[in-house]
Every structure is written in structure tokens, then in C-alpha cells.
Specification:
The protein is α+β, with helices and mostly antiparallel strands and 173 residues long. It is 45% helix and 23% strand. Among the domains are: 49 residues; 60 residues, no CATH class. The mean pLDDT is 86.
């Protein structure tokens, strides 16, 4: 099982510092993508390397904002209505469960839609056309370095060199 680059942000692992600190260790590999760096560490783990001594470091960080589409009043109101349906359904079901009144579901959905559409319309009107698009942001690195504690760095380098060379010829016994 793998953890995403920014997973477990609220959880503290044993042995890790509380405050942000620069990584330590010797570079044993450098990769263009996170997937390649992850594959390298997975290779080390599969070959019984002590991966607790390994760190993946994203270098030359960039915030990439990918534009998804144009934002119009129709999209704003539809998005508000859709989110209101889900929230209203949730509240309505809770009320119906505790009051044994299933009409509360309809009231919850209608109330959620009205509130969310109103809130979405007000929020969009305050932008006054300065942001008429939707986007998704992502933190991306220019490269990903794999570091190892000095006591195991040479072994890690050797193992990752074998990985880079690919599978060797099959030996015949």
C-alpha cells in the first residue's frame, strides 16, 4: 500500500520531527516523476532494504493550476443546487431518523438547494467577473530525489543501479 505525496498530513509518525525540517541523507537516485521515485523505493523495500532510512524529496517545486473550464452563471447555480441537494439530503435524513417524519427529507433537500444556490450566487457576484473559470491546483516538483541515511547509501545506490539497468539475462542452471 502506498501513501500519496501529501497523505497523512495530520498524523504524526514515530521518529519524525514536529516542525518542518530539511531532509537529511545522501542522494541515491534522481527521478523525473514521483511515480518513478516511488517505484525505486518500492524496489528497495521488495529487496529487504531498510526503507525507514529513505526519503523522497521533491525539488524545484511548482504550483500548477490547470484550467478546467469557463465559469458561467448557469454553472455556478447548477453547482450550488447540486451541493445543496447533497447537504439537504444529509440533514433531512438525520431529521427524519430522529423525528420519524420522512417529510423532513424533502424539506431538507429544498432548504439545502435554496441556501446553497443563494450562497453560490452571492459568492460569484462578489468576484465581478475577475475569475470566470474553474481550475484545479497541484503541487509538482521538477524532479524527485531519493535520499538514504549515510550508513546504507552505497547499498541503496547499488540496488537502484540494478533497477535502472533493467532485468538481466535469465541465467540457465
Amino acid at each position: 500500500m502506498t501513501t500519496p505525496p501529501f497523505g497523512n498530513m495530520g498524523q504524526r509518525s514515530p521518529g519524525l520531527p514536529n516542525l518542518p525540517t530539511p531532509p537529511t541523507g545522501w542522494p541515491v537516485g534522481s527521478y523525473a516523476t514521483y511515480a518513478e521515485a516511488q517505484r525505486a523505493v518500492d524496489y528497495l523495500a521488495d529487496h529487504d532494504f531498510p526503507v525507514g532510512d529513505v526519503t523522497i524529496v521533491g525539488v524545484d517545486l511548482m504550483l500548477v493550476e490547470r484550467v478546467i473550464g469557463r465559469l458561467t452563471w448557469g454553472r455556478v447555480l447548477a453547482s450550488g443546487a447540486l451541493s445543496g441537494v447533497w447537504m439537504g439530503l444529509f440533514v433531512g435524513l438525520l431529521l427524519a431518523y430522529f423525528q420519524n417524519n420522512y417529510g423532513a427529507v424533502i424539506v431538507g433537500v429544498v432548504g439545502g438547494v435554496l441556501f446553497s444556490v443563494l450562497f453560490a450566487a452571492l459568492s460569484y457576484s462578489f468576484t465581478r467577473g475577475r475569475r470566470d473559470f474553474t481550475s484545479a491546483s497541484q503541487l509538482v516538483a521538477g524532479r524527485y530525489d531519493v535520499l538514504s541515511a549515510p550508513r546504507n547509501a552505497e547499498q541503496a545506490k547499488d540496488m537502484l543501479a540494478k533497477l535502472a539497468m533493467g532485468p538481466g539475462p535469465e541465467s540457465v542452471d
